[in-house]
Recover the amino acids of this structure.
């Protein structure tokens, strides 16, 4: 959690001159987001977030990310809405970085989600999937199946520095997933990173979702699997089936999962666990000198992968698809 | 700029239960302050700053700092006001650290102050000195004359790693200051760290002063000297006499400097420059592994010290004391 880029007064002033935001009341760097520098900007018109996109974000992807946020916000999704400059643009350059201003969301993230939180996350994810269906831009998921083997090769046998045998385990898992990864399931724009840090609640009601900087086109059910891994495990890495059931019910009530999607969940959860295991493994083995961010422990996602390797029937995730398909409110 | 301590949901909830702040709207770590962890807290009742005091602050000093802020705020100084808990206390323990909530100040700090900004800083400093006169707690300035030699000894000859001859220069300066440091000048509670980062402006009007965590009892004119060093040098470390004149006029209009105080300014400016040179030198030579903060360049204050070593007459700071004493608005 850090601010990577400093903004001078004169740079900020020139930047604000491009907008109709009124007079400046406050400007504070905020310790939120691992990839970018974020500033809380308060003006006559309210509160906003100014984001400077640091080097891990490809500027070529920004029109997709910002366009998606505008598209979703216009369809009633509670997410940050990019603010257009007087020129009509929502992307500019500030302190040498691509930069944008988005509306501010009230709320706090939860670190110990309850089943009720998980149910709302499922609902919000389904709402986002539906709202994104007529979005016209597309972005390939570089971190889906075809990206995992090249990503793994960057760590390779060094994986065994985390745990002896990990490199073999990952190789076997890649072999397995490449043979059984589902095709033909419903796809569209997915969030792909709807972790607890990226969802706000106000008095236990979900108040917004944000950080769309991994959003891409992929299987909707894969996004569900990412959320199951992010929301339904306890701090000791054990699986909470009550939370999983709540998340799946919340999702299905708004966008019912087909039998094919439901049955694919174990393999999608394995894939999702592997995806985060691989990026965390790489980050863990390659901490840059002077890094401001402590890397996540890759073993968390290894534990999740092992859990899903033991699941043969999606019913183990707590939802009875037949009941749910009928009412969406099965209990 | 960083947040050092993470606060869990349940810790925050239990903490807020001790206050009458209403429901929680937002909670964000902010990249402000080098010594402590600060969080922007928004509730039904408005915005507040929650500070966790990290190890560089002595908990025994906190009643002085927080009591002073309450005292000054009650006398109309625009500074953060500690918020009392239901119990009446304004200091508690959160995530293993002393912690307090203070009111939020609107405004932004300026990095390139104008003479008009400097005039307002002088005025605000004088107002603070006057408002603090009936504050009943006291705190010795550990970073005044008697503290400098022991502080220097922690760096010693390693000073020459910054510049050959620096250790000798500091030793000579200590010898000089110990013989001519003024006594008997008006004293009271001073801010002792009123740098640009600790003053907010709104549309070029000073809107508040904060960060009282170096406040102590010492000579008022020494606080003026600290501000001259912090506000009246350009980014290339050259002295801007127009800004110094404005700062001194702003101060004197509210609290006229006596002839003794005025004439002591060159030695007080040397002392202030040495004080920040010594702490920056120590920090520069002792960056802890994994530090989140880049230390300030000690040579900045070496340049300032050298400038003041060349001043024999306080008139060189741009103010004609005789004029000022009469009108407070000399121009």
């Amino acid at each position: 959690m850090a601010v990577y880029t400093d903004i001078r007064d004169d740079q900020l002033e020139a930047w604000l001159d491009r907008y109709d935001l009124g007079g400046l009341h406050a400007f504070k760097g905020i310790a939120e987001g691992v990839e970018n520098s974020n500033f809380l900007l308060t003006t006559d018109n309210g509160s906003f977030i100014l984001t400077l996109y640091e080097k891990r974000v490809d500027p070529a992807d920004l029109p997709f990310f910002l366009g998606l946020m505008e598209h979703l916000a216009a369809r009633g999704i509670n997410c940050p809405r990019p603010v257009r400059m007087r020129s009509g643009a929502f992307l500019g350059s500030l302190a040498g970085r691509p930069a944008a201003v988005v509306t501010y969301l009230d709320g706090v993230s939860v670190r110990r989600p309850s089943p009720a939180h998980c149910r709302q996350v499922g609902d919000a994810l389904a709402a986002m999937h539906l709202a994104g269906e007529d979005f016209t831009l597309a972005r390939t998921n570089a971190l889906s199946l075809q990206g995992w083997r090249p990503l793994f090769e960057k760590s390779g046998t060094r994986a065994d520095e985390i745990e002896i045998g990990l490199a073999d385990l990952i190789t076997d898992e890649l072999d397995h997933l490449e043979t059984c990864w589902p095709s033909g399931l419903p796809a569209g724009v997915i969030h792909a990173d709807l972790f607890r840090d990226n969802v706000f609640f106000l008095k236990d009601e979900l108040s917004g979702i944000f950080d769309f900087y991994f959003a891409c086109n992929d299987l909707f059910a894969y996004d569900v699997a990412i959320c199951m891994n992010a929301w339904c495990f306890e701090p000791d890495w054990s699986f909470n089936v009550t939370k999983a059931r709540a998340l799946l019910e919340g999702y299905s009530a708004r966008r019912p999962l087909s039998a094919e999607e439901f049955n694919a969940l174990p393999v999608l959860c394995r894939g999702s666990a592997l995806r985060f295991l691989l990026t965390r493994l790489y980050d863990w083995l390659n901490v840059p000198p002077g890094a401001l961010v402590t890397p996540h422990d890759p073993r968390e996602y290894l534990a999740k992968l092992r859990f899903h390797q033991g699941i043969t029937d999606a019913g183990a995730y707590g939802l009875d698809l037949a009941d749910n398909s009928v009412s969406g409110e099965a209990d």
